[in-house]
From TrEMBL:
Protein name listed in UniProt: YitT family protein
Pfam families: DUF6198
Keyword field: Membrane, Transmembrane, Transmembrane helix
Key word Transmembrane helix present: yes
Membrane-spanning residues: 7-26, 46-68, 75-94, 106-127, 159-181
InterPro entries referenced in this protein's UniProt entry, alphabetically: YczE/YyaS-like
Higher taxonomy: Bacteria, Bacillati, Bacillota, Bacilli, Bacillales
């Protein structure tokens, strides 16, 4: 059964993606992803934890996506929405992230976080257990408006960034170049994982045909 191959990639991808977020949060003064700007702003303004806000925002997007286009909502969407936030909180609570002491090391740590997020995001997306709440939300809008996902992503993340900034979230130079760094890494990890899922699934398909 192909799920036996997909599920490990999905889980590992979510863990890496969450760890990348936690790493980037440690150097948030350099700038972080627009969605994390919003989560940190909500945390600083209203309390709870960063992970809790990630879950709440994710579930809010799932509800909107449900009314826009149900095709992008399945079990993987909920697993993503409910697990990334707690995992980020866990990594931060356990102090399992680097703590840079200079600007050079801070930039290195931020790039590490971006790379790990890109690899993790590519892995869990390629597993095809389900799109994350943010991805599903943007795909739904893209389908409804008949425009490209890249254009929707730019508009949505720009609006999220402005909202996060207005609420007091950390915005700096790296916030604006996040997508340009992360997208190629995501794409490479996505294609590589897709290839490995197919390779590892081939013997299982052969077994199913024989039986």
């Amino acid at each position: 059964m192909k799920l036996r191959v997909q599920i490990p990639f999905f889980i590992i991808g979510l863990i890496l993606f969450s760890y990348g977020i936690a790493v980037a949060i440690q150097v948030q003064h350099l700038g972080i992803h627009p969605w994390d700007v919003l989560n940190i702003a909500l945390f600083e303004k209203y309390g709870f934890t960063i992970g809790t806000w990630a879950v709440l925002v994710g579930l809010f997007l799932v509800v909107i996506s449900y009314f826009l286009d149900k095709r992008y909502i399945n079990i993987g969407t909920f697993l993503n929405a409910l697990s990334v936030g707690p995992l980020v909180d866990l990594f931060l609570y356990m102090n399992w992230t680097p703590h840079p002491s200079s600007l050079t090391s801070s930039i290195f740590v931020l790039i590490l976080g971006v790379v790990v997020m890109g690899v993790g995001g590519g892995m869990y997306s390629a597993a095809r257990i389900g799109a994350g709440p943010r991805d599903g939300f943007m795909l739904s809008i893209s389908d409804k408006l008949g425009t490209s996902i890249s254009r929707v992503r730019i508009v949505v993340e720009s609006l999220v960034l402005v909202l996060g900034w207005v609420l007091g979230g950390p915005v700096f130079i790296f916030t604006f170049i996040y997508t340009f760094i992360q997208s190629p890494i995501f794409q490479y990890a996505y294609h590589l994982t897709t290839k490995w899922v197919e390779i590892l699934s081939a013997p299982l398909k052969t077994k199913e045909k024989v039986s």
